[in-house]
Every structure is written in structure tokens, then in C-alpha cells.
Amino acid sequence: MYVSPERVPGASTILPLELVDRATGSKVWVIMKSETEFTGTLIGFDDYVNMVLEDVTEYTMTPEGRKATKLGQTLLNGGNITMICPGRGPEDEQ
Fold first, then answer.
1. Predicted local confidence at residue 15, as pLDDT
2. How far apart are CA 90 and CA 24, in angstroms?
3. Taking residues 29-57, what's their average pLDDT?
4. Which one-letter DSSP state was computed for residue 1?
5. How far apart are CA 12 and CA 41, in angstroms?
6. Is 73 strand, coil or helix?
7. Residue 17: enclosing H or E segment and its boundaries?
8. How much is the pLDDT for 79?
9. Is this structure's pTM higher than 0.70?
10. How does the average pLDDT of the chain come out, rounded?
11. Are strands 27-32 and 36-45 parallel, antiparallel or unpaired?
């Protein structure tokens, strides 16, 4: 989705893939369509926003609460991603 900078005062033109590209090498929080979330360092992505993360923590929602599982390097399917939050994770929520 492209938003013209003329329509938003003070905004600059940035495309979604540019924003994801700026997060490469940084910590990201990825929320999936399922009850699963991931945090890790974004290593790379493609035009479909398939993402490779390293130093990953997977968070799954259970009836007892959020369960964290440490993983190594992980490939996430871009078609299952709902939201990407650069620079933070669910552990940063208050």
C-alpha cells in the first residue's frame, strides 16, 4: 500500500519493503496469523516477505499463558505473517 506524502503532513515516501529492509540486522517481533509470535534478528527477506531470523524465540499461546521456546535460525513464510514490529518483542510489552 502506497500513501502519498501529500496526504499525510510531515510524512516522507517509504514503501513497505523499504521499511522491512531498514530492519535487516535488527531485532524484530513477528506476529503470525496463528497463535504464534517470533522474535529474533532479521537476517534477510524476499519480495514475498519470507523472512530468515536468527537467535529466535517462539512464543505460543496456551491456556496456561505464553510459552517461550528458543530456536536457532528460522524461516518464516510471508503469507502467514500478520505484523512485523522492528526493534521490540512481546517481552517489551507492559
1. 85
2. 19
3. 95
4. -
5. 26
6. coil
7. helix 16-22
8. 96
9. yes
10. 87
11. antiparallel
